Structure formats: C-alpha cells, structure tokens
Amino acid sequence: MDIEEFRKAGYQAIDRICDYFYSLGDRNVLSKVEPGYLRKALPAQAPEEGENFDKIADDFKDLILPGITHWQHPSFFAYFPTASTPEGILGDLYASSVSNPGFNWICSPACTELEAVVMDWAAKLFGLSDAFLNTSGVGGGVLQTTASESGLTAVVAARARYLTTHPDVPLEKLVLYVTTQTHSLGNKAALILGLQYRTLDVTVDDNYGLRAKSFKQALEEDKAAGKHPFMLIATVGSTSIGAIDHVSEVGEVARQYDLWLHVDAAWAGVVLACPEYRGMCQLEGINTYAHSFCLNFHKWGLVNFDASAMWIRDRKLLTDALDITPTYLRTKEADEGTVIDYRNWQLPLGRRFRSLKVWFVLRSFGLNGFREHIRKGIALSKKFNALVESSPQFEIVTPPSITLTVFRLLPSTDSGVDKSDTEAVNQLNQMYQRRLHAADLFLTQTDVNKMFSIRLVIGSTRTEEEHIQRAFEIMVREIGPTIEEWKKRRETS
Ligand SMILES: *Cc1c(COP(=O)(O)O)cnc(C)c1O
C-alpha cells in the first residue's frame, strides 16, 4: 500500500468506524458466534500474493465484527467498561504513525517528555500528593499496559527493596499480603515471582475492607513463624464487589512493620477526579502511605485500552530493581542523569507511545469534562439501584459501590423458591443469568459468601437513562420464565 492508497483506505476506515458507532445501539451486545467460527472462515495459511485492501477491509466487517462483543455498546454492563473515545482513537492513530519503542529518552524525546508531563497532569487531576509528581525528581508517574503489570512491577520493586535491606533472608521466607477481595493480579505476581502470599479474610461487618486489627494479627503470626512480611496490596474498589480497604489504617500498620504498600484502584481510581469521592476512596491514606498506586485510564477513564497509570513515591526503588544497562542502551543523557529512561520503570524494554492518547483526552474533555463523565456514570448507577430496590424480587447483595451493583434474584416464598436454601437460590440465579444473556443483557457473576450474585457496572460514554431502564425491563421480564424453568427442572430431577 502506498501513501495515496493509505489515504483512501484511511478515509474509508474512519467512515466505517463512524458508521459502526452509529450502529451500536441496534446491535446485540453479545456476539452470537460458536467457538471455532473464524478458523472455518479463514484459509489455513496467509496468501502467497498480497491481496487488495478493499477485500481485507470488507473481511473486517464481514468476519471480525460478528465475533466482537461490543464493549462500546451503550448497554454494555458486564465486567468493567473499557473506554474508547474518538480522542483516544486518534491518539493511537498518530502514535502508530511515529511508531517507535520509546524505551530511552533518546529513542524519541517527545514520548518520554509527554508521558512525564501528562502523568503529572493526571496526578493533579486525581488529587495525588506532590510526592508523586515527576517534577519532584524523587517520585513520579509512568504508563504501564495494565493494572496487572503495574502490580507485578510494584511487587518486583518491593521484593528488591526488602532483599537489599535484609540480604540474609531467603526468598522463600518473604510473604506478600492480599485479601479475599484483591484482584487475582496479587496471586499471579506471587506465582510468577515464586513468592509466598497470604490471603487475609475480610468480613461483611467491615464492608469487605481490610482493617488494621486483622492485618496486624496476621503479621504477628507470620513473624512468630519466622516469615518475612514485605508487602501489602490494598484495593480501592475491588473487582468483585467494589470493596474499599481502609488504606489509612492498614497503611499505618504497613509503615510500622516496614512493608511496601501498593494500592490497586484499577477501576475505581478515576473517581478521585471528583473531590466529593476522595474521602470515600481513601485519598489521604494513599497520599500518606502508598509506595505505589495504580488506576486504569482504560476502564472508566476515557482512554482506549491500554493505559494503566502507575505512580511511585520513590522512583529509585523501581530503577534499583529494574535498571540493567548494557553498552548498547547507554546514552549520554542518562549518564548525566538529566532524563527519565522509562525502560527502567517497567518490565519490558520497548513501550508504546501511550501518553499521546491520554494527552488528547485530557485536553479535549478538559478536567471538568472528565469529572462530568464520572459523575454521569454515578448518577445513572443511583437510578439503577433505585429501580432494583423498588422491586421485592431482588436482593442487593453488597452495598452498591460507585457504579457497581451486586444483586441476585430472591423471589418471595410463594413463588416456590425457599429463600433460605442457598443452593436452590444459586441454581435459580445461574438460570436467570443464562436467560439474561439470551436476552442480550450481558452481566457477569461473582461469589459473595457462597451466594451466586450478578454484577451490573456502568461507565460507557454512550450509556443513557433509557439503557438503564431497558436493562431493568429485561431483568423484570425474565423473572417469571426463570422461576417456571427452575420449577420444571426441579420436577424432572
Ligand atoms: C480490572 C481490575 C484489574 C485488572 O486490570 P488489568 O488492567 O486488566 O490488569 C485489577 N484490579 C482491579 C481492582 C480491577 O478492577
């Protein structure tokens, strides 16, 4: 493809993407294809001779789109939202045009410098302490791929920090602390790094947030057993139910025991843009105690996947753990200490120019536009909660958190379902979820104290009140048929 052909194909691509956006509301959220559908549709090997691009572009429409679950759909309420904004797309497009691996400042000075600036903009947007600003020269912000990678990177740095100050402690004695609410990234990091981890229980009385007392007790037990606690991963807005750890409390304990505190706010962290949620979301604890902090722009934060923002209070703790500089990566600027080389702040070497799309988004929306987007999602979520609460057929399982509602179907006993029979209610809710999916209401599930529960999360830019209303209508409509199906199944089994 030459440049003029690219111009033509590019215009066509933007046209088709716009048509796709216009069509979203008329599409199903869930893809209807069967496993293996694409292998059947595609040849077993790449073509010997290059093909015409029109045909390739048509195949995106005809073969790929049917296999897409439309996360950008206004009625997408599963998992967590994944942002896609025109500004973000354009950022990615321009970034692709100057594609470069950006690992050192010299690779493309703008890539490093823009990232350092927009991460400071973002730190200010979210009310983070000046200690986390790149201009501090001590702390700083970096864009990682995902919250999982931010978490893993933090664990690598925390491990190195501990082993530096305790060189005689064998690696297998180190313990990483997570809770039953922590995202699986904690266990995965421990698995990858060959570390022990301990999963702390959190209780309904504490709203599933970790408190100082139980944390301290676990630390004392483990120390008495000869183990070496070195890190806690706390969460603000857990994936399952949106639980929030008491960061100030557990942060103080972490400080007393000299543990690294990483705070994972992958989904919920963007609400810190709105001052009215900063107390609830533990900003003070984060600012006082966190060694590292992460939130994802790419979930509810208007920037296309991937853009996970990570801040570190002491960048040297990252670079001490991750700086390997063979001759071929040495530069004059780095030797002189005048620049950031972001390769030393992350696990891989090369990196995408992610800051461009963050820059586009923050400028085009403005800080107020960003906050408006967050507040709109929360207002819609309140409306949804009111609908669910208005029906005696539903139970809200855990207190609604930000824009996440966790509920289950709990019909009155005269429906034939014994409310106290957890297994029966679970079976009913599994059937209910399947029926919702068949009706194209895609909601994911979670387990709360053995209760099969259903999650609905709001956060797409396109979601309006009518979509919330429609989701609730489907929920109500499917109750009767679900109970009928459940009864029939009971009779035949
Ligand atoms: C979504 C989520 C993650 C994982 O995010 P990735 O960026 O996909 O790794 C981690 N923690 C929490 C609390 C999340 O909500």
Bound molecule kinds, no repeats:
pyridoxal-5'-phosphate
CATH third-tier fold name of the largest domain = Aspartate Aminotransferase, domain 2
Are there runs of 5+ residues with pLDDT below 50, and where? none
| Largest β sheet strand count, sense and barrel closure | 7 strands, mixed
How many domain regions?
3
Helix content: 40-55%
Task: Label the structural class.
Answer: alpha/beta
- What overall geometry do the principal axes of the alpha carbons give? globular
Number of strands: 11
Rg from C-alpha positions? Answer: 25 Å
Succession of helices and strands: HHHHHEHEHEHEHEHEHEHHHEEHEEHH
**Count of alpha and pi helical runs:** 17
- Which strand order do you get reading across the main beta sheet? 1-7-6-5-4-2-3
CATH architecture of the largest domain: 3-Layer(aba) Sandwich
β-strand amount: 5-15%
- Average residue-wise pLDDT: 97
Considering the protein shown, what is the CATH homologous superfamily of the largest domain? Type I PLP-dependent aspartate aminotransferase-like (Major domain)
Cofactor: pyridoxal 5'-phosphate
Family: Belongs to the group II decarboxylase family.
Pfam families: Pyridoxal_deC
GO molecular function, one term: pyridoxal phosphate binding
